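Quick check before the chapter quiz. The format below is the same one you will see on the exam, so make sure you can read both the input and the output lines.
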Amino acid sequence: MIDHAAIASLIPHAGSMCLLDRVLAWDAQSIRCVASSHRNADNPLRVDGRLGAACSVEYAAQAMAVHGGLTGVITERPRLGYLASVRPLKLYRHFLDDLESDLSIEAAMLAGQQTLCLYGFCISSGDIKVAEGRATVLLAPGEE
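Here is the expected output.
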């Protein structure tokens, strides 16, 4: 199991913006993470005291970034990635902050190369499906 400190070393997010708690499992094609930060009153993604379900995309993006770091797709860590598109995105609820159980974030690489990755993702909380979709991530060029 990979803990929060190890996750923070793999992605460019720092402090409370590093949303994931642990990596439960990963292989060359997929990753499964868990997060409890959706319940934190000081979550940096909250607006007017609420955490909208669209923020689940950031949880998925961080899981994808960790996967890239763990599998070597990202050769220099941390390396910036940019979400180029998320579609189709299905949100099954309005908010995340009222979910009592931890978030389970699953992502699977559908295609990838040094500067572009396509992932499918699904987020749930216990038996509650929260969000699912596909994300295209552009990776910043590495330093030569």
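If your answer matched, good. The domain at 4-139 is CATH 3.10.129.10 (Thiol Ester Dehydrase; Chain A).
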